[in-house]
Amino acid sequence: MNTEPNYAIKKVNLICAKGAIEDVYATLVMGNGAVMEGIETNIFFTFFGLDAIIKTRMDKLHTGVVGNPALRLPGGMRMASLLGIIPGMEAFTSWMMKSQMADLDIPPVSEFMDLITAGGGKIYACKLAMDMFKFKQEDLSEHVSGILTIGEFYAHAGGEGSQIIFT
């Protein structure tokens, strides 16, 4: 009889609070990876992360250029954060990032949501953020399983082998 404790991750609960494309994609890649590994997956979008699940915004996310010291152009060259104040730089940088992702067959946000939910993952919106930004249920993508309070999210996130990851 094996008496060793089982520390396997059985459930992943991701919280996305930022709406820049690099933050949303970090959440989606991790969520999709968990689903593909057969791990129960819940993704909770709050504050500016709501842009990823708002129908009119989800496929129009931008790269955060001002204040992003790790921003890199194709080829790995670092871009000075101060360049972000130049008109059109955010749109250009976002276009370049989306082009690179397309070259790597990384799907747009809406298709990533399809993959995650088709694999059994659940997508949730934060009630407080929805109320604060005056969004309604009809503003949300069809991928969203529900609007939860933080307490309700914690109830979904519980259990042995469960991890909460703030992306």
Identify the notable features of this structure and list them briefly:
167 residues, alpha/beta, Hypothetical Protein Ychn, Chain: A, 2 domains, five-stranded parallel beta sheet, 5 helices, 5 strands, 33% helix
General description of the model:
- 33% of the residues lie in helices and 16% in strands.
- It has 167 residues and is α/β, with parallel strands linked by helices.
- The protein folds into two domains: 8-59 and 111-134 and 142-167, Hypothetical Protein Ychn, Chain: A (3-Layer(aba) Sandwich); 62-107, no CATH class.
- It has a five-stranded parallel sheet.
- Helix 1 runs parallel beside helix 3.
- The model has no long low-confidence stretch (mean pLDDT 84).
Task: Explain briefly what this protein structure is.
With 167 residues, this protein is α/β, with parallel strands linked by helices. 33% of the residues lie in helices and 16% in strands. It contains 5 helices and 5 strands.
User: Which runs of at least 5 residues are low in confidence (pLDDT < 50)?
Assistant: none
Kindly give the count of domains: 2
End-to-end separation in angstroms reads: 39 Å
CATH superfamily of the largest domain: DsrEFH-like
Helix content: 25-40%
Strand content: 15-25%
Secondary-structure-derived class: alpha/beta
Order of helices and strands: EHEHHEHEHE
Radius of gyration: 17 Å
Sheet with most strands:
5 strands, parallel
Number of strands: 5
Whole-number mean pLDDT:
84
**Would you tell me which CATH topology of the largest domain applies?**
Hypothetical Protein Ychn, Chain: A
Helical element count?
5
Please tell me the CATH architecture of the largest domain by its name: 3-Layer(aba) Sandwich
List the strand order in the largest sheet. Answer: 4-3-2-1-5
For the record, the CATH class of the largest domain is Alpha Beta
Question: What spatial form do the alpha-carbon principal axes imply?
Answer: globular
